[in-house]
Structure formats: C-alpha cells, structure tokens
Amino acid sequence: MSDTHVPLRGEDEPEQLREQFRQLLRYRWLIGGGVGVGLLAGAWLGITGADSYAATTDIVLRAPTSDPFAPTLSSDKALNMGSERQTALSRKVAEEAAKRLGLGADEVDRLQNGLQVTNPPQTLVLHFSYTGSDPKEAARRANALTQAYIDLRKEQWESVQGAMLKSLRNQLNPVAKQNDELSQRLKQLPDGSAADSAYAVQANLLSRITDLSSKITGLQMLDMTPGNVIRNATAPTSSDGPGLPLSLGLGGLVGVGLGLLGAWVRLIFDPAPRSAGDVARAVHGPVLGALPRGSAGALVVGRTDSRAAEEYRSIAFRLAYDERFADRRRLLVVAPRGSMESSVAVAANLAASFAETGKNVLLVEADLRTPSLSERLDVSAAARPRWSSTVEPAEGEWPGPGKLLVDAGESGAFGLVPGERVRNVPRALTSARTTRLIAEADDPDATVVVVAPPVLAYADALALVDRVDGVLIVCDPRTVHRADLVRIRELIVGAGGTVLGAVTHTDSHRREAAARRDSRRRAAKSPAVRPAARPDTRLETERHIDGDGSDTIALRTVRSGDR
C-alpha cells in the first residue's frame, strides 16, 4: 500500500480547474459578500443615475486665417487640442457661463464639476457634455458653457491680434516720419551725389514702410472666429444613467468577480488543507476515508446498515491490507487538537468493523483525563484477560484487573479497557501493565485499537507510539492547519511510530461542543457499567493452555441458536 495518494502527473487541466473551483466554493460567504456589495453599488448607481440627464454640444475649432480655403493652411498644426480641452474645462469659462446664466459665484464650482469635454481622435472637434438633474437646465447650461468658451477664445485671439498690430504700428510710425522728413530735404538738395544718397536712403525707408503696412493689413484681415458650433444642446428625453435593471446586472457581475477574487486570495493564504491530497501530503500517508457529514462524533456500533458503517468497513479493509498494520495489528487513533469526540468515535467504530471480520478486538481507551467510553457503549462485565496479572493492581493504577465486553450487534462483540482517572498519567501509560495490555495483539487473531488524547494537546499518544507504532490521524480539514499535520507526523516518526493514514470529517465546532456536553450529561446520569448484556447473547468462558504452559481464561460470546 503506498504512503501517499499523489495526483497523476498526466491529470488533465479541466479536472484541476474543477478542483480549484470546488475549493473556491468553500468560501461562499466571501463570494456572497462580493455579490451583495456589487448589487448595492449597482442599486445606488441605478437610483442616482435615474435623475441624471446629459446635454451635449459639438464645436469644430479653427485657427485665425485670412483665407479659410487656402490648401496650404493646416489648422491641426496651429491648434493644440489638449490645451483647447483644458481651456474649455477652466474656471474662466465656468465664470463667464455663470454670468450668462445669471448664477451666483457659489454656483461656479457646481457648474464646472458638471461639465465634461472630450476630443474624438483625429478630429478638431470638442464635445461638450453637461450633466444635471433637469433636462432643460442641462441643455441651457451646456449651450452657455459652449458659447462662453467661444467668446473666451475669440477674446484671447483678438487680444493677441491687437498686441501685434500695436507693435507693428509702433515700428511703422518712426519709419514713416523719417521718410517724410527725408522727402522735405530732397526738395532742397541740388542734383548730385548728395541727392543720389538721399534717394537711396528713401528707397530703403519706403521698402520698410511697405513691409510693415502689408503685415498690418494681413493682421487686420484675419478672421478671429475660434470655431463653429455644429450641434446645439437640446433637452435630453431620457436619463443618462444605465437604468436600474442594467445597473443591478452589472453590479452583480462585478460583485461575483470581487467575491471570487476575495475567495482566491483567502484560498492562497488559508493554512488549512484544501483537499484530501493536501492532507495526504502533510501526513505522508493516504486518506483512508472521509466520513459522511454529521457522523464524525456518532457511534454507529451495532448499526451496520448506515452509510457511516460502510465507510468504517472500507477503512478497516484498507488497514487490513496494509502490510505495516497487518504485521502487528496495533492501531493508535488520535486527533490533532481540541475534542476527542471524532477520534473516540472512529476508534470504537473501527473496533466493531474489525470484530465483524472475525478478529478478537480489544479497544483501549487511553484517555486517563476525561474517560467516557464505558458510558457511551453497550457494555457488560467480562472475564479476567490474559494481560491482567494475578497480583491485584494498586489503588488508582491503570489498567484495572478486568475489562468490559461491548455488544456490537450483528458485528459481534469486542473487548473494552475503559480509561480511568489516575494521579500520574505518564507513569500509567508507560507501565508494564500497559505494555502487557497492548501485547494482546501478539495473538494472530487479535487486534488492539487504542484511542488517546489529541497529540498537540497532551504527550499521552507519544508515550504509546513505541508500542502502538501504527497511527491513524482523525481530523477536520477545515479546522486543522497543514503545519499542525506536518508537526504531528514529525512527532510520531520521531517517537518511532508510523502514520498509516488519515480519516477526515466535516463536523463543526458547535456540533463537537454539543456532543461533549451530551457526553458529560450521560456520564453524570448513567451508571459506570451497564449490567446486562443483550438478551439474544450470553457470555461463556473457556479454559485453554498457552504455549508457555500457563492456564488462562478467555471470553466467548454465544448467540441464541449457536451451539
């Protein structure tokens, strides 16, 4: 039997995806929370967007030019659309629009916040969109903002034009005055070299005057219109929001995505085993069985037709075919930490399953702190076993001189050595009487099942590992950490034992706590030993001689009809 169940390397990807999805579903509360948040956000968006109306206008920008039909003119090089967009969104435009609308200064920020300006790629178009609660008011404000932008840009262009004209006129006036003065002098000069020089200077002045005059004329002929409105805003007939149904749908989809993301992050950082494979890798042993939900702390001894009983039979058969267990037939059942309810139930039910196969089974309750098995099982007094010496044990010593017989119904019967409260637990577990008790498994037809307190809570189980070297770990993957399972395996191997495998269950903490409370109530109300066996069975003793010549008495169950 292999030590671990490792997935095949050739496992197909769809199976891995299904396994990961099943692991994500462990965190349904995260997924549900994400869906809830998404739906709330979608509802808020749908409700707030129902009273939101967007009015839009479009402007085609143009650069100042004297000939708009000139093929050499490139407006896209003369205009920076990014700068124009920022100008349209500026507070200066909002203030001018507020004046046009007759709004106060306190409305400028609200007016500016409601405006959006975009520039479609590869165009000279500015798209103005104003969002408001009233459709007519939204259209009015969109038009006012558009006109305010056009007026501001026209004012800016005209301001630049005026400054340039002023500069050119300032240059032209001195040159014109100098030319007039030179013309008066030429009238008084006689013909000759002096007159020729004066005419040459006048020609230069006239050329300069002509150049400056042409520039002034060109600037005066420029069309300073910054752009044309190609679409005016009208009152929108429908709200700008996506609507409540669509908002809820989008919110639900986004919420599912957020929930799955949160579940994935939680799964990544979850210290608990994600699957049976994680448990197998942590304990270096196979997962021999997974108990049905709700049956971890239940004793199904005597009920052979339940689903849990079938699972215990499967676990018992798998152990029987494991050479490590079959050679010595000693089994130690432990839990990682917390309650013993699950490990006690597994040990008792496995004992019944082994008895059903014809083995002489002895169940040892090595819980010397809070023993409870004798109150939970249908037991009766049995004959003195071989492990009990002729010398009576001292008061408070464990195990006592006798054992109990558990009636497992159709499965047969098995012996029980109940736990007892002792003053020194480590000494009792390592005593010679305990060693002789576990040595019952030396008989080829005998099997000893020992249940001990949780490994990480007490060292009781480790004190038994050197004699009961086959260990079965019972755990709930949702409540135990992978590091705890690894530590348990290291402790068991370090003490000289072997982890035969693990049994998983999915009971909650509340159910285990309730089971513990019920156990304490039964212990307080019930007698320590139930006196009567089942009416269809009777107990007989038989004497036989051992190989060493000693005379011992063994217990045999006789059913009605058997002779």
Q: SSE layout and pairings?
A:
Elements: H1 13-24, H2 28-49, E1 53-61, H3 75-78, H4 81-88, H5 91-101, H6 108-113, E2 115-118, E3 125-132, H7 135-188, H8 193-220, E4 227-231, H9 244-268, H10 276-283, E5 287-290, H11 307-320, H12 323-326, E6 330-334, H13 341-356, E7 360-365, H14 373-376, E8 379-381, E9 404-407, E10 413-417, H15 425-429, H16 432-438, E11 446-451, H17 460-464, E12 470-475, H18 482-494, E13 498-504, H19 509-525, E14 537-545, E15 551-559
Parallel strand pairs: 5-13, 6-11, 6-12, 7-10, 7-11, 12-13
Antiparallel strand pairs: 1-3, 1-4, 2-3, 8-9, 9-10, 14-15
Q: How large a portion of the residues is in β-strands, by DSSP E?
A: 15-25%
Rounded to the nearest angstrom, the radius of gyration is 49 Å
- Uncertain residue segments: 1-10, 525-563
CATH superfamily caption of the largest domain: P-loop containing nucleotide triphosphate hydrolases
**How many domain modules?**
3
Gross CATH architecture of the largest domain: 3-Layer(aba) Sandwich
Instruction: Please write the CATH class name of the largest domain.
Output: Alpha Beta
* Count of helix runs: 19
* CA distance, first residue to last residue: 40 Å
Helix content: 40-55%
CATH-assigned fold name of the largest domain:
Rossmann fold
Helix-strand category: alpha/beta
* Overall pLDDT level: 79
Read across the widest sheet, the strand sequence of neighbours is: 5-13-12-6-11-7-10-9-8
The total count of strands amounts to 15
Mass-distribution shape: rod-shaped
Largest sheet: 9 strands, mixed
Quaternary form: single chain
Biased composition (Basic and acidic residues): 506-517, 533-547
Protein name: Lipopolysaccharide biosynthesis protein
Region (Disordered): 505-563
Keywords: Membrane, Transmembrane, Transmembrane helix
